[in-house]
Amino acid sequence: MTAKHRFPSTTPVQNIWSMRWLGAVVLALAGLACGEKSDSEPLTVKAEDGTDLPLRETTPELQARFKEGDALFDFTYNESDGLGPLYIRAACSSCHQSAGKGPGAVQKMAVVEPDGVTSSEDQSALAWGHTVRPYKTAGATQTIQAPGSAQNVKLSLRVGPAVFGRGYLEAIADSEIERMQAEQSTRTDGIHGRVNRVTYHSQPNPEQPFHTHQPGQGNLIGRFGVKARISTLDEFTADAMQGDMGITSPMRPAEPANPDGLTDDGKPGTDVDLARVNAVADYMRLLEIPKRATPGADGPRLFAEARCSVCHVPSLQTRSDYPLAPLAGRDAPVYSDLLLHDMGTGLADGMVDESATSREWRTAPLIGLRFFTTYLHDGRAKTLREAVLAHQGPGSEANDSLSRFQQLSSSEQSALLDFVSSL
Ligand code: HEC
Ligand code: HEC
Fold first, then answer.
1. 154 FRET partner, CA 20 to 30 A, in 29, 109, 291, 385?
2. pTM of the predicted model, to two decimals?
3. Does any ligand 2 atom lie closer than 6 A to the CB of residue 310?
4. In angstroms, how far is CA 252 from the centroid of its own chain?
């Protein structure tokens, strides 16, 4: 463990930008997306556009770091690398292709009450946990499959969400997320998101500078995962390595429980070191939000009129002390409040994640949606319109917003959806 994964807090971004200011300002004006960037942060418009690009404000050092993590993100593990004993996929990129959404997914299982929605107290029927692990290696003889005919077990899918723009999500100040919660608590239209307070589960890691609280204190704001169950990208990386691939690390040292009772795999001991976890996390921190087109006036206006913007908040402010200089103290145009919302019974999955219930979901960040082929946590929606309509249902906080959407003329609805697809 060295401080290798730290970014120099003195990255001379300001100097670079003051020199390039004149040239960049023209491009910046062309690239402004609905005014969420402040004048002091010029945006260079790249000729190429895509999902797997590093932050625009970059340095050779950050570029090299990005490339290093990118290769590890695409790396396919095999038995001798510590894959298994059970696993779902063998590479991060199988479920986050080009840092985007899917195609790989995880199947979840939860014991539910007779209403088919509420998670039961007693989950003991699922002896090996809530996750289907369909592949085996390294001496395992049995996989973890969904129970065949148990009626009280609800099955649901989680498609790997996009991972680009996640550095911005991590950098957002806690006070901003709490401000959203406070502002929504006084609303009368049913929207009342809340923070998912989570425990930092990892071994203490004093070298990990990307959270505001010290490990072990618990009580961080969850930001990552479809129910905001994890607070930092390092911890998510370690969690994904362990849970999806059976790759253990100092932050997640144990193999997931399995029917064979195996506690190790083809690579004795911990499979990867902390430096590797940090490198993958840094790659995701450095992934840029795909370039946005300049919106017409109507889209943003209708998006606000239909109150989409109450949950999908266009921009939040990042911490000024975030260790990665290009993301510190700036607007994060992520179109999410990072809060949990009760989306009703229609989207419920029976799963509890930290304090999040079956019906609660983190407001999906609206980033790079034009690169998706399916929407919502389980990919059930094949078009943006279907995704929006699925917000409506018994008990959903978004019902008022959805009535407003439906009251728009069909051309207004199209303008709104065009705007969303440009994000
Ligand atoms: C089998 C498919 C699969 C694999 C392999 C996989 N992921 Fe994921 N990933 C998912 C799913 C599904 C979620 C949502 C999970 C949740 O909310 O609990 C997710 C969520 C995430 C998130 C949170 C994104 C957000 O918007 O909050 C990050 C970051 C992430 N994965 C990184 C990784 C990394 C790094 C690897 C490799 C070490 C990896 N994933 C491997 C399926 C996968
Ligand atoms: C009460 C808060 C709330 C409101 C209001 C709201 N959304 Fe959402 N939105 C969410 C949540 C939570 C999700 C994630 C749901 C899931 O994955 O099951 C989501 C998901 C989405 C998605 C899918 C994104 C993806 O990654 O697949 C789109 C598109 C979307 N919302 C657009 C809209 C639009 C357009 C409006 C206004 C008509 C709107 N939302 C209003 C909370 C809200």
1. 385
2. 0.89
3. yes
4. 19
Ligand 2 binding pocket includes 289 (Cβ within 6 Å):
no
> DSSP states of 34-85 as a string?
TT-S-TTS--PPPSS--SS-B-SS--HHHHHHHHHHHHHHHPPP-GGGT--S
Number of neighbouring beta carbons within 10 Å of residue 387:
20
Q: What is the DSSP letter of 406?
A: H
Cα of 14 to ligand 2 centre, how many Å? Answer: 36
**Distant-in-sequence, close-in-space partners of 85: CB < 8 Å, separation ≥ 6:** 136, 137, 138, 139, 140, 246, 255, 258, 260, 262, 265
Q: What is the atom index within ligand 1 of the atom nearest the CA of 364?
A: 26
Report how far residue 352's alpha carbon sits from residue 186's, in angstroms, rounded to the nearest whole number.
26
**pLDDT of 389 above 70:** yes
Matching residue, tokens 């390092």: 234
- The residue ranges of DSSP E strands in 138-251, in sequence order, are 153-159, 197-198, 220-221
Paired tokens of 153: 């077990």
| Nearest atom within ligand 1 for CA of residue 365 | 26
Residue closest via CA to ligand 2's atom 12 equals 363
Q: For 179-223, how does the pLDDT look when each residue is reduced to its tens digit (9 = 90+)? A: 999 999 999 999 999 999 987 766 555 566 676 555 555 578 999
Distance CA 376, CA 270 (A): 35
Provide the 10 A C-beta neighbour count for residue 107.
18
User: Which 8-state DSSP code applies to residue 244?
Assistant: I
Phi, psi of 304 (to 5 degrees): -75, -40
Q: Using the mean position of ligand 1's atoms as its centre, give its distance from the Cα of residue 109 in Å.
A: 17
Asked if residue 364 has its Cβ within 6 Å of ligand 2, the reply is yes
327-366 pLDDT, tens digit each: 999 999 999 999 999 999 999 999 999 899 999 999 999 9
User: Cα of 274 to ligand 2 centre, how many Å?
Assistant: 35
Are residues 231 and 216 in contact, defined by beta-carbon separation less than 8 angstroms?
Answer: no
DSSP 242: I
Q: Is 367 left (phi over 0), alpha (psi -120 to 50) or beta?
A: beta
Ligand nearest to the CA of 382: 2
